[in-house]
Amino acid sequence: MRCGFCNLFTTSQPASELVDQTLNAISRQSRSVADAVQPQRVVQVAIGGGTPTYLQVDELGPVLEMMHRDWPIGVGMNDVPFSVEVSPATVNAAKLRLLIEYGVRRISMGVQSFNQRDLSSLGRPQQNEQVEQSIALIRESGVKIFNLDLIYGNQDQTEEDWLRTVETGLSHRPE
Fold first, then answer.
1. Which terminus of the chain, N or C, has less C-beta within 10 A?
2. CB neighbours of 53 closer than 8 A, spacing ≥ 6?
3. CA-to-CA distance for 10 and 54, rounded, in angstroms?
């Protein structure tokens, strides 16, 4: 699906051939840019838009491997802030284990709102139960920093709706 607020180039439910072509293009581009700039040190890594966890584990693994191959991220990533955005609809325990294995220290989940009317106006299909399950998985993963992305100013959003969303978000104690 495509969220109603997204202004990025995206396609919903792409054919597996398109996913493979895109991943191959990302790999070629990464290698080309790394060869051109010959980076000595990476100080921060962030991949996102929620879509990294759209990939299956066997697709996401090579992306993370490519990042380590092309960029001096290092084996001991404790000094490099590494962040990945996830979607409640696509995150699972296996993907979280893989992300942690490759040094991800911050997970940011695009919840946007805990109000179903807001979610409908944003084109977000998730239910709060799915969000709660995803938050539990993320907490169980042992990731160091957990963040929730929220959107203020949705069509027909009331002040009360926004405050409830913020209060619900804070109840999950994001870092």
1. C
2. 60, 84, 86, 87, 90, 91, 92, 95
3. 12
